[in-house]
Design a protein that fits this description.
33% of the residues lie in helices and 26% in strands. By secondary structure, it is an alpha/beta fold. Helix 1 (40-53) crosses helix 2 and helix 3 (105-116) packs across helix 8 (234-244). The longest helix is centred in the last third of the chain and has 20 residues, at 177-196. The protein starts with a strand and ends with a helix.
Amino acid sequence: MHVLGIDIGGSGIKGAPVDVGTGELAGERYRITTPHPPTPDNVADVVAQLVRHFEWDGRVGVTFPGVVNHGVIGTAANLAPAFVGVDAHALFAKATGRPATVLNDADAAGVAEMRFGAGRGRPGTVLLLTFGTGIGSALFVDGTLVPNTEFGHLEIDGHDAEKHASAAARERDDQDWSHWAHHHVRPYLNHVVALLSPELVIIGGGVSKKADRFLPELAEVHTELRPAELRNEAGIVGAALAAGTH
């Protein structure tokens, strides 16, 4: 079965049809820059554009970069504050004319990695972290998701961790991969590992395809680290999986 997955991010909104049996994209990914201002109506318009691009007439899975409880947005750190309290299921269903399932973006990526990627078959405590515009997190205990953890907002040195350890922060401050990993990502990971004692941490988001540039700087982190196998497509796959189970 194929389901359209759409991944909303702070810089881009991308989608593709997904074979939910294999986790593979069933068509070429299509991306549109996140609108500014990123209000609910503007973002919904882009989601509708993606649905039209693929001429899609079935269910749609959509990720959101913030807390999502039963389809209602709880936080929107990297999009417009007006999203808070919005029924995203209803918003995107109305915009697209298709049944829509909405979940946290990192949770979606984590579900995909646990089903088809680096976390496949792994028991115990597994944490996926996505490094992008912010830092998303997905926590699993024996394969079961603990939703909406938002560990990117843990306080490190008086600031949200993502303010200095996200991929966007690396680019903003013009840091090389080694400096960013050693001075910002490593302290953050050490903090998270001390809190949660995960047996595996999966590094996702766009940086996963550059893992060889920074993972060597993280050797002192006391747990297993692996790059996401689905890389930056994990959110799309996870969104489709969520919609496919409804």
